[in-house]
Amino acid sequence: MCTYYEVPDRDKLALHFGDVPEAEWRDKMSPLYRGPFLRAKGEGRELVVGQWGMIQPNSKTHIPTGKDGKRLSTVNARREGMMKSWTCGGPWRKGQRCIIPAQRYAEPYWGTGKHIAWQFSRADGEPWGLAGLWSEWTDPATGEVLASYTMITQNCDHTPVLNLMHRPDPKRPPNLQDKRTVVPLEKGDWDTWLHGAVELADGLIQLPAIERFQHGPLDPTVEAELPVSL
């Protein structure tokens, strides 16, 4: 599960993702903060701001909660189950796919047997365009319409480096750990992801080559700001 990433600066957003909205957002993103994401608008695209953490249909609050009232984490959507998910199934079937700009993101590295915050950026220096889903929710108390989004994840049990992230499950064999990673999209595929048929979009959910990554321990000054859930 990815629970921290950094938004590119406004100049990079404009260069790679289009017109930048005037709204404010958090540059260092954690769950429930508001951040920019790219979605389809007609035959084009638009960069909008929404809450990182999908809000369920008919929710009484913008904070995702289960039927028992406990807070849920909806910042990530499992590729294998999102089609039938109450929270993500509707947006997936309706084609409400989005692209999340990220200069880098962090995961917990466990290759040495202990948690080390590990950062991933693109080897070419450009920002990531990470695959996601979005929805809109109307606050029943105020009538405010709030956009929200989630980041899609996929299994990476057999991908070097990526399969060293997250605490190993001692109850599972090494080849069935269900390690997760995000879904980077190359620029040439952005329009297909935003506008293409479901089958075409699903085909873009693929594991990236590790050569595309520049990675290593996260700066300790940044690590101090990470959410506890990382």
Observed structural traits:
hypothetical protein yedk fold; globular; five-stranded mixed β-barrel; 230 residues; five-stranded antiparallel sheet; 12 strands; alpha+beta
Please summarize what this structure is:
Helices cover 13% and strands 32% of the residues. By secondary structure, the chain is α+β, with helices and mostly antiparallel strands.
Task: Characterise this structure.
There is one protein chain. The protein is of the alpha+beta class and 230 residues long. The protein has one domain (5-223): hypothetical protein yedk fold. The protein is built from five helices and twelve strands. The protein has helices at residues 10-17, 89-94, 190-195, 198-203, 220-223; strands spanning 5-6, 28-29, 34-41, 44-52, 76-78, 97-102, 104-109, 116-122, 128-138, 145-155, 180-182, 213-217. The chain has a five-stranded antiparallel β-sheet, with no helix packed on it. The chain has a five-stranded mixed β-barrel with strand order 3-4-10-9-6. Strand 7 (104-109) and strand 8 (116-122) form a beta hairpin. The longest helix is centred in the N-terminal third of the chain and has 8 residues, at 10-17. It is globular, with a radius of gyration of 17 Å.
